[in-house]
Amino acid sequence: MKQTNKPAAKLSQTGIAxxxxxxxxxxxxxxxxxxxxxxxxxxxxxKYRNSGLSAQQLNSPSADTAIATMQAQRMSxxxxxxxxxxxxxxxxxxxxxxxxxxxxDKRRSLAEVAAMAAKIAKxxxxxxxxxxxxxxxxxxxxxxxxxxxxxxxxxxxxIGINVPNAWDLSTGSGVNVAVIDTGYRPHADxxxxxxxxxxxxxxxxxxVDGNARDSxxxxxxxxxxxxxxxxxxxGAHNSSWHGTxxxxxxxxxxxxxxxxAGIAPNAKIVPVRVLGKCGGYDSDxxxxxxxxxxxxxxxxxxxxxxxxxxxxxxxGSGPCDSTSQAAINTAxxxxxxxxxxxxxxxxxxxxxxxxxxxGVVAVAAYDKTGGRSYYSNFxxxxxxxxxxxxxxxxxxxxxxxxxxxxxxxxxxxDNYIYYQxxxxxxxxxxxxxxxMLAAKPSATPDEVIAALKSSARPxxxxxxxxxxxxxxxxxxxxxxxxxxxxxxxxxxxxxxxxLATANAVTAPKTLSAxxxxxxxxxxxxxxxxxxxxxxAVMTPNASSDYDLYVYNSAGSQIGSSENGKGSADTxxxxxxxxSTLTRYVKVVYYSGGTGSTNGKYSLKLSW
Length: 607
Known about the structure:
This is S8 family serine peptidase. Helix content is about 25%, strand content about 25%. It is of the alpha/beta class.
C-alpha cells in the first residue's frame, strides 16, 4: 500500500521540534538494534521542485550564469537555516536525481541533521524534500552467536519465523516478558536480560527450596523420584530447567559471540516461579499472571517490572477453570498479551487448560517439515503455530535449541540443549509479541492477536487445526505498525464445503481456487480486527458465474453479491466492535465451468 507524505516544505511551525523528537526516538530505538547502528553524518540532501528558472532563462546564452546565481541564492538560504544550529554548509555536488548534497563543517547526530533539514524545507517552499545523508554499513548476515546455524526455527526461511528481518524493525527494547514457569538459572547467555521476579509457590513440598513465597525466582530443580508424585505424573525424571529454556528462546543475549540468539534480545525476562516438584497449582499460576501484569496480589509487593507479555508453557486437561479465566481477564485488562502452549497430547485443545481459555494466544507446534508436530494439540481454539520441533531421541537437533543447565537434580553448569514441545513453540510467539509491542507500545492485547493472525504465513505442510498459519516475526511487526505486506497468492484446500471445515485465511491475501463441480461450495474464514472493514472480491473465469456471500460467526448471512457471468463480485463488511471477529466468506456455483481447468476463480481478501 502506498503512503502519501506531505512535502517537507509544508511542515507546521512545530515541524522542527517534531522532527527532532521523532529522529531522537528513532535513533534511541535503532541504537538497540543488532545490525543497524545509527551513525552520525556530516552531509544532508536537498531536492528542489524545479530549477527556479524559466525556460527562456535556461535557453539563453547566459544560462550558466543564471544557474550559478540561483544556486548561490539557494545556498544562501540553506546557510541561513544552518546558522541557527551553529553549522556551516557547502555545496558538494548534484546527484543523479538532481538533488543537492550539502557538506557540513563536522559530523553531527542524525537527529540534529534531521532538524536542520526540516528547517531548510520549512524556509523554502520550492524544496521538495530535505533529509540527512545517512551512512550505511555492510549488514551482518546473521548474529555471531556460535550456535546460530543450529537455530533453524529463527531463520529467514520457509520454516523459520524470519527473525533477522524482524530485527531490522524491532529488537524488543523496553518490553518485559514474564516467564511463568519453573523459575530461572542465571545462565551466562541469559542473565543480563533477567529482571527481579518472584517465587509464587506456596506449598513448600512443591517449592523444594525450603520456603514458600519469596522474591527469589531462581530454579532449584524440579526432579522427582519414581512414585513421589501423584499419578499420572508419578514417573521419575531429572530436573528440567524448563523455565530457563523458555526464557532463552525469548531473550537470550544476542550477538555476543557465544551460545544462542534470542528472538527479542533487547527485551527483559521477569521470571515467576509457579512449577516445582510434581507441578504447580492453578491458584499460584493465577496469582502469577495478575502480579506479573502489574496487578495487586494480597501480601505481595508490587511488581516494579510490569510485563506486557506473559508466557505460560504449562497446562493440564479439562475445561478452562474460573480462576484461570479471571486471572487472564485481569492480565489482559492490565495490557498484557497472554501466550499459552496448546499442549502435547495430540488432542483437541478444547480439553487442554489454560490454552482453552478466552482471550489467550493458544500456540500449536510445527516441526522442520513445516507440518504439525506429532504431539501437538490442535483444534478451532488454536490461534497459530510456531516451531516446536519433533525429536526421535534426547537432544535431537530436530528440536529447539536454547539455554539450559547440566544438573540432574540441583543446579550444575550452563549448557544448551534441544527440547521439543508446544512449550517451545509458545515462547517463539511471546518473543515476537515483545518485538511487536516495542514497535507499537500502545497496542492492545487484541490488536497484537489480530496482527499475529493476519500476518501468519500459509503452512508448507499439513497442519490441520493449527490456527491462522505459521508465525512470521517480520510480518507480525509490520502488521502491528500498520504496514501491509503483499502476500503471495495461495490456493484453497478441500474439503472446505462447510463453516466447520472453512479454510483459515490470513488476510490480506489473494487465493487461487477452483469450483470443483456444480454442487461445490467453498468456505474461507477470516479474523477481522476491530475497526476494520473486510473487502472480499471474487473474480470468476470469463465463462462462469459464481456468487459471493459473507456470514458472521453464528452462520447468519451479512453480505452478498450475485453478479453475472465473468463479472467480479464484491462484498464489504465492517467490524464496529472492540474485539476481533470471525467472518466466513462463501463462494457458490451458479453456472459455467467446473474442474481444475474451467472452474478457476480468484478470491482477494483485504481490509
